[in-house]
Amino acid sequence: MSGRFSEKDVQEEQMHFSNVVTAFQQYAQYSLAANNRRRKDMYTLSQADRALLDAIGYKKKLQEVDTAILANADFLNRIVADPEIFGHDLSAGEYSAEDDPNEDSSRHQKSWNSLDPPSRGDDNPCSHGHSHYGHTHSHGHNLQTSDPRRPHGQGKYKPTDFDMDKLRSTLKQFVRDWSEDGKSERDLCYEPMKRALEEHFEGQERGKLRVLVPGAGLGRLAYDVATLGFSCQGNEFSHYMLLSSHLILNKTDSIGEHTIYPYIHSFSNIPSKAAMLRPVKIPDVRPSDIPPGTDFSLVAGDFEEIYGDDVADESESHAGRWDAVLTCFFIDTAKNAVNYLRIIHRILAPGGVWINLGPLLWHFENNDTGDPSIELDLEEVRELARKIGFQLSDERTIETSYTSNDQSMLGYIYKAAFWKATKAS
Amino acid sequence: MSGRFSEKDVQEEQMHFSNVVTAFQQYAQYSLAANNRRRKDMYTLSQADRALLDAIGYKKKLQEVDTAILANADFLNRIVADPEIFGHDLSAGEYSAEDDPNEDSSRHQKSWNSLDPPSRGDDNPCSHGHSHYGHTHSHGHNLQTSDPRRPHGQGKYKPTDFDMDKLRSTLKQFVRDWSEDGKSERDLCYEPMKRALEEHFEGQERGKLRVLVPGAGLGRLAYDVATLGFSCQGNEFSHYMLLSSHLILNKTDSIGEHTIYPYIHSFSNIPSKAAMLRPVKIPDVRPSDIPPGTDFSLVAGDFEEIYGDDVADESESHAGRWDAVLTCFFIDTAKNAVNYLRIIHRILAPGGVWINLGPLLWHFENNDTGDPSIELDLEEVRELARKIGFQLSDERTIETSYTSNDQSMLGYIYKAAFWKATKAS
Q: Which residue intervals make up region (Disordered) (chains A, B) (predicted)?
């Protein structure tokens, strides 16, 4: 499979990974500067206004936010403390395209059983795509239009606002997937999907049933499905997510081991200082408590490239190999949803089931990177699914937030579409 | 007052106005191109995928969106059909800074009784600021960071994404303020404010009570307050809003005279074609039905400059001249809310009342124009109000959307803060 990737692909991939690691490392510097801007702005005011702001505690709050930024930085630095395990050759973020023209392209393959560090040469078919929009579900369409892939020279990469937004989203993803605070969101989203999966395969031996979770993010849904006894593979594409899930799944020993402050980055729509500065403990479970023998893996790379079956070797084909595909806030990451749906249909085994939950926030709408984008409405997606050969059932709407700050004065509520789909033809 | 403005200020102001008019005129071209991108993207797909999209009606939908864009363009062109009435010297959008070095700065003053075209030399003190963030309440913080004020040469101004976002927001503001569809939002926001106003002045002669509505937008709250019999002045700063409210208040004769399609600009989170393409009729009332003798005016310009009392002539001072100030989704437009609150406190008459409703989406947070921004949380704003000399009462939270597409799969809900405040000191 690695034959499909040119040296240039591999180098771009390496560079992108290096840039993401640098973004993690530069979080403190960037965020402290953003907060310090507020301090400077105070000094543009009259002395009387400054005194009033002092009196209501604004200046003191800025100090407390600095402290919280440093705590977040400590956590983020832990995530990238040992990035070499991902098979990338990093020189403290100084990697440049010129460094290693003879890069072994076998490094391009990586997947690992979670709870173990990834290693090269794993049997699972996998690859990294070379187009790197993270799959976090962001409200900020515009952010997508920055291209984080810009080449850089020998100098240290300077993270962009786009990178930092990804980092801040990553912190909120931790809340969603691995904190007690995220339980209500998980209950709304993951529970109906898990129930539908259990019902569909009622009475069957779960360990023999292969479940795929594309867009696995920080891995909680895939982990939960594995914990239910199914053989489960998550697939994820964003380096932000992959680095982060590795910390949680493989390097975290106890409940509440990490403390993060996910709500300190915007000062808008905040009811109180306590709401903004509230800490969140990570994780809510010990991932290593997963029963021995559980088949749970995460595969890094682009869904279409990995499962799209552009392979010469029949034995590597995914066609008909999956008993269930669970897509949660995923299908709108497609440039062309027709292809996503065709792939899901093709890889499902006879009697298999596709369970979907999510909105239609088309991630590539308004991109300025020249990527095509097909943006269907919900009726069209359902009609498309039927035409591709699915039979839909249990169609309903689930109202849910997504990595939402439930104490914000602005709430986002998705009317997410749920359905089960089986192969009709 | 015009002595405060330099020739450069006046020229920048003219240029900005000209650019906004150009944005209205360029809407069709820009929006058709954006939609045509979708058509082109279809041709990057395989023939089989294209055929499927055809079969589910995607291509036909793109044509219908084109038709709706042209209908919107017709409406927007009506708004700027006669911009000279605003006292600006336009040459079909070709104005440039070099055109008129001897520009009469008295043109900088404008205000008008609504229901009449504005004229120069009106008695009301007023001015245009030269910093032009519109006051529409946008969810997209990032958009704010584009600077629409960039100078241009002799060539036609090319509207930016920022300008076009303002236009799309303007269409949604029409729904909120002047359509039957906006009634539920208005009932949630304007009704409690009007009730509080009526209660505060129960039994008093309304015509003698002067009510100010800063951030008046398209003018509905101010219009409603005037209709209740109060003497009401709206204040607005955005050219998008000012041009648009002029059409509704002064050039619209019948209910449902205009038809717009506010929901066609994003293809994300759309449940169905019908939801996206649904027309909205404007207006829901005949603004000219306002009772004769009603004192209702709109003043164009920056709130701090107009009401901040930086005047030598005591007779022009606003201090103590207003019986009520109604701020709806307004206080977070401040760079420095301390100054907003001081001004509101200063201009209120003894026994006067400040009625507030809104979130705290600080409009200047993350700006990249070098403007200072003080971003308080709700507890701090309330504490600040008390320190400035207000006594707060009737404090509560009102859950409401703001120019929301209620059929979208993504809903925004504000937990807006409501309060009444009187001068305690």
A: 92-162
